[in-house]
Design a protein that fits this description.
The chain has four helices and seven strands, in the order ββαβββαβαβα. The protein is an alpha/beta fold. A hairpin with a 4-residue loop joins β3 and β4.
C-alpha cells in the first residue's frame, strides 16, 4: 500500500455535455513512499554524525599505583610549605606545622574565607622558599561535611590555581583537635 497525494478515480462525470466526448482529465498522482524513506535516511545520518556534548569534569591527577613488592619512601617536604585543611559543614578548620599545630576556623566566603587564607599562606611560602608553587595543601574531610563542601574546596583550589594538593583521610587526633576547638569556642 503506497501513500498517495491527489489522483482521480477515473470514473466519468455525471451530466450532459455538448460537443464531442472527451477523455476525463486525471490529476497527477504522487507516491510519498520514497519521501518517507529519505526522511528516515536523513534522520539516521544526522543522528550518527552529530557530536554529543562531552561532560565537563575536573581532571584529577592520580599517583602511580605502588605494588606491595616496591618500597617507595615518601618525599621529604619542608613543614613550612604545607597547610592542612579540615573541611566541615560550611566551615574549614586549618593549621600549619606538625609539632604544635594551632587550629583556626574560617568559611568559604570569597573575601575573608579560605581563599584569603590560602593566598596569604602562598605569599608566605613564596617569601620563604622563593616559589609560590611550592605550597602543598592537604585536604581532609570531616564526617559532618556535605558533598557540597567537598566541591567548594575543590573549586577554591581551581580558583587560586593551586597545583599541589592532596585528599587524605582524617586521623583521630585531628577529629579530637576539632572537637576541643569547638568546645573552647562555645565556652568563651
Amino acid at each position: 500500500m503506497a501513500a498517495e497525494v491527489g489522483g482521480d478515480s477515473g470514473a466519468p462525470k455525471k451530466g450532459k455535455k455538448k460537443g464531442k466526448a472527451r477523455k476525463p482529465k486525471r490529476r497527477p498522482r504522487i507516491d510519498m513512499t520514497p519521501m518517507v524513506d529519505l526522511g528516515f535516511l536523513l534522520l539516521t545520518f544526522f543522528v550518527l554524525t552529530t557530536t554529543m556534548s562531552t561532560p565537563n569534569t575536573m581532571p584529577v591527577v592520580v599517583p602511580p599505583k605502588i605494588t606491595e613488592k616496591e618500597e617507595v619512601e615518601p618525599p621529604k617536604i619542608a613543614e613550612g610549605k604545607v597547610i592542612t585543611l579540615l573541611v566541615g559543614r560550611n566551615k574549614v578548620y586549618y593549621y600549619t606545622g606538625i609539632e604544635q599545630p594551632e587550629l583556626h576556623q574560617t568559611d568559604f566566603s570569597p573575601r575573608t574565607g579560605i581563599r584569603k587564607v590560602l593566598l596569604e599562606r602562598r605569599a608566605e611560602v613564596a617569601s620563604r622558599y622563593g616559589d609560590p608553587n611550592e605550597m602543598i595543601v592537604i585536604i581532609k574531610m570531616l564526617e559532618e561535611a556535605y558533598y557540597k563542601d567537598f566541591v567548594d574546596i575543590l573549586d577554591e583550589m581551581a580558583i587560586i590555581q593551586q597545583k599541589k594538593y592532596a585528599l587524605v583521610d582524617i586521623t583521630q587526633e585531628e577529629k579530637d583537635m576539632v572537637e576541643e576547638y569547638k568546645k573552647s569556642i562555645s565556652t568563651s
